[in-house]
């Protein structure tokens, strides 16, 4: 029968050995989740752009429906200087 000290001494060189492949393993999963996060963000951006395009089209349609007798003028505004 093996004594516990003899068993530990026989495995200790393997336990102390540096395994570079094992050290890279935890980095694999974050790369996959980063890809998923990027894909999700791109889909959200695409959806936002589609909504903005619909809004822009709606605004243009409303502007086309304004009677020609009504003049559309820009909004006037005044910028205040900071610190005044």
Summarize the structure.
The protein contains two helices and no strands.
Would you mind describing this structure in some detail?
The chain is 69% helix and 0% strand. The chain is mainly α and 84 residues long. It has a domain at 22-56.
User: Mean pLDDT, as a whole number?
Assistant: 75
Specify the structural class: mainly alpha
By DSSP, the count of extended strands is 0
The 3D shape can be described as flat
Give a quick account of the main beta sheet: strands, pairing sense, barrel closure: none
Low-pLDDT parts are 1-7
- SS element count, helices: 2
Helix content: 55-70%
Any chance you could write out the topology, listing elements then pairs?
Layout: H1 4-16, H2 20-64
List keywords for this structure.
84 residues; mainly alpha; 2 helices; flat; disordered N terminus
């Amino acid at each position: 029968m093996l004594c516990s000290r003899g068993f530990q001494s026989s495995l200790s060189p393997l336990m102390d050995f540096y395994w570079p492949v094992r050290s890279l393993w935890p980095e694999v999963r974050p790369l996959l989740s980063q890809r998923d996060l990027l894909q999700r963000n791109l889909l959200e951006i695409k959806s936002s752009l589609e909504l903005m395009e619909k809004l822009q089209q709606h605004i243009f349609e409303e502007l086309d429906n304004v009677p020609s007798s009504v003049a559309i003028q820009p909004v006037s505004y005044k910028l205040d200087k900071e610190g005044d």
